[in-house]
Structure formats: structure tokens, C-alpha cells
């Protein structure tokens, strides 16, 4: 496909307004296949201003006299205004941006063309697959094995090629269990909690249906999990739907595990909102945050009405429930909702951050996201097609990954020393999950990424982020490894609006980057001066 | 596990542990002893009671009462609970239940405190067992009603530093005119009370003349700006009682603005509502909406907005400013002191802040005795109001928005508030300087700043970066204000973050290393500077010689 067919105009003169804090830019505006460029004239600063078209969420145009105005609302929640000379030019540019920003083809997207200096293709892609995690747990226990039954994605299109399953269950049994679970997502190991020898599993709902079907292999799989744990261990199935919703799912072929069929396992229902209601909550929150007319004495009740913080609270409490089941009751936990690709991953990944000190390191956190979100089949392309500003009716969009990042931010706020990465890392992940020059968040599953050859033809976000020059923005200068579990407080007054994200572009007091920079200075000055050696492998280059 | 409600999974299990921490409020004590005592503190009585803990249920303990504090130690093996409450924080003591009340723990005492909590003790019903506890508590919590001295006059604590020396009005005057003069454009902030205009529209030639002189000291702009802290309608209403505001025709060359800040009664009721939603249990459903209905943050916003206007007028508008409300010691003190904090980085240091409090609040006659009610039993007194607390809250909001601009930390603000009530120090006693002089407060009592300044490290913000001449404009939008949870909800063990100790320890490490770094840098500078290489000349004053070293952090 030729991008040139979609580009209506070469260039135009324009002025760009970037919000209250930044000076306006004047220059020549130009649309290319993937970018919007603004080149200031030779007299001005030589900096070229660049916007990835993919990150445009909605576009609004107005014309008056012989000039026009385009308002771009971006997926990273920025709002930009372009004042353009010429009515025709304005309309042409608007149409070009509209067409190019909504292209659906993955292989013509920018990551397939992005070739930054200093990075080599294929780097960092080998960092995090399940094989690596399996090696870690194989040192602790022999009860689990790495199965390649899904080598050709035939068992489950949304799982990676290799998954970790009980040693006692063979690949044929896995295939049968897969047929009994929605989308083939049979129970697999998500996290092995070595201190108590318990496990966290995830799956999708069983397809019991109206006839209350059963599957011997699926039952056997869960029985084997308990048998491998310590004697007498119990299991809890955390269903992220209400009991009512789980029951109703039977009418459409889904359902939940029957008590009698899974001895030793007890079901708990912790309904978490996802899909449409979550997306609407995000949209309402951004309306409230961006409303300049809003009379400020109603801010708190409006914030309350968005329910975003309630979603944060519910997600964190459910993760605590799963984590406490493992840590305090020594129980095995299986988490699933319906498809098992959204709330399920939210709960399992947060539970690991609470329990596992390794997942709170920079490398561990990247591995966690790769393993529990990307390879675990969270459909990023569908969920992050639009963020909060799109006028089109949401189809599959839902900010579930953003909700995860917000929960992590709350953890970081309550435990300021325990995460090796800082707010900058979470902001970067948010930006890149919605629009990125890197290939990491492309597609909906490993299968799709293989078909598109994402690994060999695009750069990994992790190699981009792990460059020395990025470290100061992303790392937490105050980090000290904390071997304990970090139990967050989920009382409403302990949870805050993540201002650094939701008010990022309207936020005027001391910009948090400035404060961050000062903290870095103090912390690193004394590190180079101080005599204690730190783990040099992960030491950033100042 | 399954039967427990979700909230059970939060941090309940940590409650017992955190209660130990909550009860320690910054008073030095020896935990090993049964009862910690200050020099000059005498033990009056002790008794076995049941403390009805709102978070953990009834706990059997022994309560000790001295002339300074109420101290409770748990007698149960599985609870290490300790309560340590200066009697000064007690606002009201009530008897609950009667000799014939039925039901467990229904007979005892109910104590309302000024610091956002209540205490409830159950006693045995036989033999009027609570009567002497009630009487002793009443006598020592409200000494003024019993012709007893306030504890500050009995306190024999000794500190290395004398906090009374922190503020010397003459020296401060040399540094500043009242209240503050801009170092470059020479505009000033002045304060006064409302003019006594009354219904008939009285005028006073001398007052008009005086304001005109103030205006003339500033050569850059012909106008003087007057900020009236009150809402416009209140100022008009005040005419009925003889007060009012400066009219245009009498004070030409002056512009008058109203800042819409409500009076002490509105603030008191607002804080009462905050207490209702946070103590003992936090209103969980619709937390934000209930918080909004207290209007507390809205009042904070208006005070901050007013102070920003004053500061901005002086700094950018280059106009001299007069600030007043009705009496000139409540809202006025809030506005001038906050504006000075925004304009002058000196007041953002520990010592500078102490001077600011001493000057703008204590010296200028904020009526601490009436607003707080030290040693006074009249809990419903309409003069009581949390004006100073509101000011400290505004300071905290600023320190949140500018994490590196203040030398002090949150603990510093909290200890000031704790001793605002405790009556252990003379700092906040009495309504005005003349009363303090009459009572010889500086000779007969210890200053709070003695306690703080002899242990400054505890109160330092490790991220403090000294910047001279930086004007701070906080954002006074509701989106950027939050409830000061660590103060208002600090008695609730559930909001405690689970690892305060490592955080603090890390901050202390950072501080120590920073100091060491500065010292080394200074040494290097000394070594590299040929003029100063002779050691006999160097010790004079390193900070004066190398101002750039100082400003580096």
C-alpha cells in the first residue's frame, strides 16, 4: 500500500500550541506516512517537532476566513492545537491525519520502519520468554514442567508456544483441558511462590454450559496442582465475575467449576469491572480532568462519580486476596474471569508485585509485563486502539493495562523505596502501549506476532528503555531492595488520583521531573561519594 | 478465608503493631519504665480500666494520670498497646452510662480531644469507681478552672538550645519591616484590622493619611492594594456593628479586593465535619463526596488563593499591599504568613519558619489562648477555631507541591500541632505579648523551639534544595489539594503505610551522606583555593566565603 495515496497535501504554514507551559511553535507543517512534522524556519530553533500519527486519538477541525484550526487529542492524553493558513490546506491535512492515524494494518505500522541508531534488531527479544521463568522455578521445585504442546498455537491461539504445567499432566490431557476452556486457555502456572511452595494459576472459564459438562482432564490438572503442593493444601478459585454473572455465563456456553468436580478447591467471587464500563470510567475521568470551565468546588464528587478510584481499589483488593491466600493460608490460587485475558492478568500480575521482590526490580518488572501481559495474550491492539478521546463508539477498547499501571503507581506511592522503577517508567509504558515506534505492544497474541514477524522486523521497547540515557528518567533513585511482601492499604483515603498521568499536561506546580531530577542528584551524588558498593550490574550511567 | 469480607485483607493484621507506633507522638520517653515522666511531672493516680479501642475493641489496661499526661499500658499479653496523651489535648470529659446501666463496658468516661480523636474508658460500676478519675482528669486537664498552673510553668526540662532566642524582634525588624519588604522592588506587605467605618460611614483623616504614606514609599506604582480577607457581604454586614471596609472616596489611590475567606465559626464547623467522616471510622462509600461536603479543602483553597494574590501583587504587580480581615489576627495572619512563605525562601528553613510563626502569629496577637482554649474547660466556647491548624495545612499543601523547597518535613509540622495543644511549652500560651510579658513566659517556661532545634535532624527534609529568591506559587486548584491524611487520620491504624521505619531510615542516611558530601566539597574548595591555603585564616566563616557551595543543594 502506498501512503502517498492517503496524503492529500504536501505542506502548510502553521502554528502549534502545546498547552499552557510550552511556547507556541511556528513553521512548516508536513504530513508523512507515519508522522506529523513541524519544521520551524531557519531563523528559529533548529528543533524539528514530530508527532507519531498513530498516537492521534481524535481530530477536530474548524475553519474561519482563510485559516483553519485542527485540535488533536492524543492517546497519551495531550491536547494539541494547530492553527493553519489556508482553508483547503487545513481540510487536506485533517483528512490525511484521519486516514493515516486509523490504519489497521500492523505490518505497515511505524515499528516496521523504525531503525534507531545504536540499537540492533533482535536485541532484547530473547530476554523474557516463559523458558527463562521456568529455569527460575525449576531450581526450587520439580513439580512443574515446561510444555511445548502449544508449539504451533493449535491448543490455544492466545498462549505462547511454551507454558508451565504440572509435571504429572501430559500433553494429551492438556489438549483436552484446552477444549474445555474458553479460547483454549487451560490452567497454567503464573507464579511460583517459593517461600510457601504455593502457586498462582490462571485460565479462562470452563465451558460447562447449560448441561453442566465436565472434563476429567481439566479436573485432573487441578487435582495434580494440589497434590504437588504441600500435603493438605487447599485451593481457591478467584472468579473475577460476580456469582450471578458466572451463573449466567452458562447460558452462553461458559460457566464455573462445579464444587463436586474439583475437590479441595473453593470458589470466591470478586467482581471486577472491565470492558465498556471501565472505558467509560476512563473517558469520564478525562472529561473531568480536562474541563477548564468546571466549577472547582464540585471536583471531588465528580472524581467520585467517575468511579476510577473504585476500580483501582477493587483491583488491588482482589490482588491482595490472591496474594494473602498464598502467603498466609499456604493455598494455591487459580484466577479467571470469562476470557481470562483482562482482569485475570490484572490480578495475577499485581499479586506478584505484592509478593515477589524480584518483580519489583527494573528487569523483573519488564519480565513480568512481557510474561503476564504480552505473552499471556492480553489483546493490546484491540484494547488500546483508542484512549479516552475517541468519538467512535468503543468496540473492544478498555484501559485495563492503564488500570494495572495505576495500581502499580499506588504501590509505589505507599512503598516509595520498594520499586526499582519510578513514575517515569509507568508513564513510558502507558504511552508505548497506546502508540509506539517499538514493536513490543503490537498485535493481540504471540501467534499474531509470529505471523507478522514482529520479533525480527521491529525493535523491542525493552532495548529502547534499557539504554543508559533513559535510565535517569525511569529508575527510582531511592530504591532499596525489600525482601518482604508489600501489602498496600486499599482504604479510599489511601488511594490518590495519579496526577502525574491524568493531569500530566495541565499540571503546573513544580514539574515532577524537576523534583525527580533533584532527588536523583542527591541520591547519586552520595552514591559516587559514598563508599558502599551497589549492585553494579544494574547501576545506571549518570 | 472465604467468609471474611474483602477489607479484611488489607492491613488489619498489622494493626496491633502499628498502634504501638501511632501512640508515640514525639514526646521523649523511656519505654522500659512503667510510666515515662518529664522533669517536673508528678504522678497523681493510676487505675485499672478498659480502653474501648475503636479499631481493636476493648483492651484491659492500667491508666496513669500525672499533672501532664494520661498514659495507658495494656495489661493483655497479646497487645502491646500504649496510649500517651498530654492532658492539654483534652477538650471535654463526659461520664457515660450510670450506676444502673446494663451491658458490657457501658459505664465510664468519654473524652473528646482537640487532635481529631476521642478516647473512651470503661470502669467497674461498683463504688462510683470513675468519680475520682473524672475529678482528677478534670482538675489537671482544665487547670485554669481550678486555680492550678498550666503544666508549662512546672516543666523543668533542659535543652542545649534556648528556643526563646530564635526570635528577636529588633533583629528581625532590621531584616524586615512589618510584615515584609520585597528586597528588590521595596514593596511591602502590611497588616491591620478593619476600619471602624460603621453605618454612618465614618472617616479618619489620620488613617487615610497613614495608608497614603505607605503608598508613597513605593515609587513604582501609584496605587496601594488593600486585601480584605472577608467575603464582600460579611464586610458590609460588619458595618452594622461599627466595622466596615475602606471606601473608594475616602481612600482614593487605593484598590480594595475581597478574598472570600469565611470566619472562624465556619472553619470550626467544617473541621468538625472532617472529624465526623474520619474518626473513628472512615466513611468508605463515597469517600470523596463526603470529603467534599465538609468544605475543608475548599476553605484551604480560598486561603491559599488569597495568599497567592497577595504574594503576586507584591512580586509581579510591584504594588504595596495592606491585608486585613475583621480583627486582623486570624485570616490576616494566615494570608501574610503564607504570602511571605511564598515570597521569601528564608521562611522555608526550619529556623525561618519558627521566626515566621513567632512573628506573624505569636507576636502579632493571634489569640492562641482563645482559639485553642489552653487549660480551659469551656469546650463549646465560640472563640475556639482551628485557624492555626488551617495555616499549617496550607503549608503542608505547599510542601507537597514543592517537595524540595522546604527544609522541614511533615513531622516538623505535626510536632508543632501536637504542642499547640499539649501545654508542655510556653510558646503558644496566651493571647498576646502583653499577657505573656506579665506572666514572664520566656523566663518561666520552655520554648517548643528548644525541643525542635536541639534535635533538628529529625525534622529535616532530605531533598531540601536551598534556592534564594525563588518565589513559589502553589496551585490552589481543588485538583491539586488533598486531605492531609497523615495528620487527620493518623489514629486510624489502617491508613498507616506499612514501612515507615525503613523510609525514615533511608531519609536519614541520605541526609547524613548529603552533609558529608557538602563538607567534603567545602574541604576541596578550601584546598584548591590558594588564598585560603593558610589554615590560620580559613576557619573564619566558610559559608560566607563560598555561597555557591551552599546553593548547590
From TrEMBL, chain A:
GO terms of biological process kind: negative regulation of autophagy; phosphatidylinositol dephosphorylation
Any single GO CC term annotated in Swiss-Prot or TrEMBL for this entry: cytoplasm
Segments forming domain Myotubularin phosphatase: 124-502
Pfam family, one: Myotub-related
InterPro entries: Myotubularin, Myotubularin-like_Pase_dom, PH-like_dom_sf, Prot-tyrosine_phosphatase-like
One of the record's GO molecular function terms: protein phosphatase binding
Stored PANTHER family: MYOTUBULARIN PHOSPHATASE DOMAIN-CONTAINING PROTEIN, MYOTUBULARIN-RELATED
Family, per entry: Belongs to the protein-tyrosine phosphatase family. Non-receptor class myotubularin subfamily.
Protein name according to UniProt: Myotubularin-related protein 9-like isoform X1
Organism annotation: Tursiops truncatus
Gene that this sequence comes from: LOC101333765
From TrEMBL, chain B:
The keyword Translocase belongs to this UniProt entry's keyword annotation: no
This enzyme's EC code(s): 3.1.3.95
CC terms in the record's Gene Ontology section: filopodium; late endosome; plasma membrane; ruffle; sarcomere
Biased segments, Basic and acidic residues type: 14-25
Pfam families, alphabetized: GRAM, Myotub-related
Keywords assigned: Cell membrane, Cell projection, Cytoplasm, Endosome, Hydrolase, Lipid metabolism, Membrane, Protein phosphatase
A GO MF term: phosphoprotein phosphatase activity
Residue numbers spanned by region Disordered: 1-25, 528-553
Compartments it resides in: Cell membrane; Cell projection, Filopodium; Cell projection, Ruffle; Cytoplasm, Myofibril, Sarcomere
Binding site for substrate: 263-264, 325-331
Stored Gene3D superfamilies: Pleckstrin-homology domain (PH domain)/Phosphotyrosine-binding domain (PTB)
Chain ranges of the Tyrosine specific protein phosphatases domain: 294-356
SMART domains xrefs: GRAM, PTPc_motif
Membrane topology of the entry: Peripheral membrane protein
Ranges of biased composition (kind: Polar residues): 1-13
Family: Belongs to the protein-tyrosine phosphatase family. Non-receptor class myotubularin subfamily.
Listed PANTHER family: MYOTUBULARIN, MYOTUBULARIN-RELATED
Annotated protein name in UniProt: Myotubularin
Organism: Tursiops truncatus (Atlantic bottle-nosed dolphin)
Gene field: MTM1
Amino acid at each position: 500500500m502506498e501512503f502517498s495515496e492517503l496524503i492529500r497535501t504536501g505542506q502548510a504554514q502553521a502554528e502549534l500550541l502545546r498547552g499552557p507551559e510550552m511556547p507556541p511553535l511556528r513553521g512548516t507543517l508536513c504530513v508523512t506516512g507515519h508522522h506529523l512534522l513541524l519544521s520551524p524556519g531557519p531563523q528559529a530553533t533548529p528543533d524539528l517537532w514530530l508527532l507519531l500519527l498513530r498516537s492521534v486519538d481524535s481530530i477536530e477541525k474548524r475553519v474561519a476566513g482563510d485559516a483553519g484550526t485542527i485540535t488533536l487529542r492524543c492517546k497519551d492524553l495531550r491536547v494539541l492545537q494547530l492553527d493553519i493558513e489556508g482553508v483547503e490546506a487545513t481540510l487536506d491535512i485533517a483528512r490525511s491525519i484521519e486516514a493515516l492515524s486509523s490504519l489497521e494494518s500492523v505490518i505497515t505500522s511505524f515499528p516496521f520502519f523504525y531503525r534507531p541508531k545504536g540499537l540492533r534488531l533482535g536485541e532484547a527479544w530473547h530476554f523474557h520468554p516463559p523458558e527463562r521463568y521456568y529455569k527460575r522455578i525449576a531450581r526450587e521445585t520439580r513439580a512443574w514442567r515446561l510444555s511445548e504442546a502449544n508449539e504451533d498455537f493449535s491448543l490455544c491461539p492466545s498462549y505462547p508456544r511454551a507454558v508451565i504445567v504440572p509435571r504429572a499432566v501430559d500433553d494429551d490431557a492438556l489438549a483436552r483441558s484446552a477444549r474445555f476452556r474458553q479460547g483454549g486457555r487451560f490452567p497454567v502456572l503464573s507464579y511460583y511462590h517459593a517461600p510457601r511452595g504455593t502457586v498462582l494459576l490462571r485460565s479462562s472459564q470452563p465451558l460447562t454450559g447449560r448441561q453442566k459438562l465436565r472434563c476429567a482432564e481439566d479436573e485432573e490438572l487441578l487435582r495434580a496442582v494440589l497434590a504437588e503442593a504441600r500435603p493438605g493444601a487447599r485451593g481457591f478459585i478467584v472468579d473475577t465475575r460476580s456469582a450471578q454473572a458466572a451463573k449466567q455465563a452458562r447460558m452462553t456456553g461458559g460457566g464455573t467449576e462445579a464444587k463436586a468436580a474439583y475437590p479441595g478447591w473453593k470458589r470466591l467471587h470478586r467482581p471486577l469491572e472491565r470492558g465498556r464500563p471501565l472505558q467509560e470510567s476512563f473517558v469520564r475521568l478525562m472529561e473531568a480532568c480536562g474541563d477548564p470551565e468546571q466549577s472547582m468546588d464540585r471536583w471531588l464528587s465528580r472524581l467520585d462519580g467517575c468511579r476510577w478510584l473504585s476500580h483501582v481499589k477493587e483491583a488491588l483488593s482482589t490482588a491482595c486476596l490472591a496474594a494473602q491466600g498464598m502467603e498466609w493460608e499456604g493455598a494455591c490460587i487459580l484466577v479467571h474471569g470469562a476470557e481470562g485475558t483482562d482482569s485475570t492478568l490484572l490480578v495475577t500480575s499485581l499479586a506478584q508485585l505484592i509478593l515477589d521482590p524480584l518483580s519489583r526490580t527494573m528487569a523483573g518488572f519488564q519480565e513480568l509485563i512481557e510474561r503476564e501481559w504480552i505473552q499471556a495474550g492480553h489483546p493490546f491492539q484491540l484494547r488500546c486502539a483508542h484512549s479516552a478521546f475517541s468519538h467512535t463508539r468503543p468496540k473492544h477498547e478498555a484501559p485495563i493495562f492503564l488500570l494495572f499501571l495505576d495500581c502499580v503507581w499506588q504501590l509505589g506511592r505507599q512503598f516509595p523505596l520498594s520499586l526499582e522503577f519510578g513514575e517515569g517508567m509507568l508513564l513510558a509504558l502507558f504511552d508505548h502501549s497506546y502508540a509506539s515506534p517499538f514493536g513490543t505492544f503490537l498485535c493481540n497474541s504471540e501467534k499474531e506476532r509470529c505471523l507478522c514477524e514482529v520479533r525480527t522486523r521491529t525493535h523491542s521497547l525493552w532495548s529502547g528503555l534499557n539504554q543508559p540515557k533513559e535510565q535517569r528518567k525511569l529508575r527510582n533513585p531511592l530504591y532499596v531492595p525489600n525482601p518482604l511482601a508489600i501489602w498496600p492499604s486499599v482504604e479510599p483515603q489511601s488511594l490518590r488520583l495519579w496526577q502525574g498521568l491524568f493531569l500530566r499536561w495541565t499540571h503546573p506546580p513544580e514539574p515532577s521531573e524537576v523534583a525527580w531530577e533533584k532527588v536523583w542528584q542527591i541520591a547519586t551524588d552520595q552514591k559516587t561519594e559514598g563508599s558502599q558498593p551497589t549492585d553494579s550490574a544494574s547501576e545506571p550511567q549518570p | 478465608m472465604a467468609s471474611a469480607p474483602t477489607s479484611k485483607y488489607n492491613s488489619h493484621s498489622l494493626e496491633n503493631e502499628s498502634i504501638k507506633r501511632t501512640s508515640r507522638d514525639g514526646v521523649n520517653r523511656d519505654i522500659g519504665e512503667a510510666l515515662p515522666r518529664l522533669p517536673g511531672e508528678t504522678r497523681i493516680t493510676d487505675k485499672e480500666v478498659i480502653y474501648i479501642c475503636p479499631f481493636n475493641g476493648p483492651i484491659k489496661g492500667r491508666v496513669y494520670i500525672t499533672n501532664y499526661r494520661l498514659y495507658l499500658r495494656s495489661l493483655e499479653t497479646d497487645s502491646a498497646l500504649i496510649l500517651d496523651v498530654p492532658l492539654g489535648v483534652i477538650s471535654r470529659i463526659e461520664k457515660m452510662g450510670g450506676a444502673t446501666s446494663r451491658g458490657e463496658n457501658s459505664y465510664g468516661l468519654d473524652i473528646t480531644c482537640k487532635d481529631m480523636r476521642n478516647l473512651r474508658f470503661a470502669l467497674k460500676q461498683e463504688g462510683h469507681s470513675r468519680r475520682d478519675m473524672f475529678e482528677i482528669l478534670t482538675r489537671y486537664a482544665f487547670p485554669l478552672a481550678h486555680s492550678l498552673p498550666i503544666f508549662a510553668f512546672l516543666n523543668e526540662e533542659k535543652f542545649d538550645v534556648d528556643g526563646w532566642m530564635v526570635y528577636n524582634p529588633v533583629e528581625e525588624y532590621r531584616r524586615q519591616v512589618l510584615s515584609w519588604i520585597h528586597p528588590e522592588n521595596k514593596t511591602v506587605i502590611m497588616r491591620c484590622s478593619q476600619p471602624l467605618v460603621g453605618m454612618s460611614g465614618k472617616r479618619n483623616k489620620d488613617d487615610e493619611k497613614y495608608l497614603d504614606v505607605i503608598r508613597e514609599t513605593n515609587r513604582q506604582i501609584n496605587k496601594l492594594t488593600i486585601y480584605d480577607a472577608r467575603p464582600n457581604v460579611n464586610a458590609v454586614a460588619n458595618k452594622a456593628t461599627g466595622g466596615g471596609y475602606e471606601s473608594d472616596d475616602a481612600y482614593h489611590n487605593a484598590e480594595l479586593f475581597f478574598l472570600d475567606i469565611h470566619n472562624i465559626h465556619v472553619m470550626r464547623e467544617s473541621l468538625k465535619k472532617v472529624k465526623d467522616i474520619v474518626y473513628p471510622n472512615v466513611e468508605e462509600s463515597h469517600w470523596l463526596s463526603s470529603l467534599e461536603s465538609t468544605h475543608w479543602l475548599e476553605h484551604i483553597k480560598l486561603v491559599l488563593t488569597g495568599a497567592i494574590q497577595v504574594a503576586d501583587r507584591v512580586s509581579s504587580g510591584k504594588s504595596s499591599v495592606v491585608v486585613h480581615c475583621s480583627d486582623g489576627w486570624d485570616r490576616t495572619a494566615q494570608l501574610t504568613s503564607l504570602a511571605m512563605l511564598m515570597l521569601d525562601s528564608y521562611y522555608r528553613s526550619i529556623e525561618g519558619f519558627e521566626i515566621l510563626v513567632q512573628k506573624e502569629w505569636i507576636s502579632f496577637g493571634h489569640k492562641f489562648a482563645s482559639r485553642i482554649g489552653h487549660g480551659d474547660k469551656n469546650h463549646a466556647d465560640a472563640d475556639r477555631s482551628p485557624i492555626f491548624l488551617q495555616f499549617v495545612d496550607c503549608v503542608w499543601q505547599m510542601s507537597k507541591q514543592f517537595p524540595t523547597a522546604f527544609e522541614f518535613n511533615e513531622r516538623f509540622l505535626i510536632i508543632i500541632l501536637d504542642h499547640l495543644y499539649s501545654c508542655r511549652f510556653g510558646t503558644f500560651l496566651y493571647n498576646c505579648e502583653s499577657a505573656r510579658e506579665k506572666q514572664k513566659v520566656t523566663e518561666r517556661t520552655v520554648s517548643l523551639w528548644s525541643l525542635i532545634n536541639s534535635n533538628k535532624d529529625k525534622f529535616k527534609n532530605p531533598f531540601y534544595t536551598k534556592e534564594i529568591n525563588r518565589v513559589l506559587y502553589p496551585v490552589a486548584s481543588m485538583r491539586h489539594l488533598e486531605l492531609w491524611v497523615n495528620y487527620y487520620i493518623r489514629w486510624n491504624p489502617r491508613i498507616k503505610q506499612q514501612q515507615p521505619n525503613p523510609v525514615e531510615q533511608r531519609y536519614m542516611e541520605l541526609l547524613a551522606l548529603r552533609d558529608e558530601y557538602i563538607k567534603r566539597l567545602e574541604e576541596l574548595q578550601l584546598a584548591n583555593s590558594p588564598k585560603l591555603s593558610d589554615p590560620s585564616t580559613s576557619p573564619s566563616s566558610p559559608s560566607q566565603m563560598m555561597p555557591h557551595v551552599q546553593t548547590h543543594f
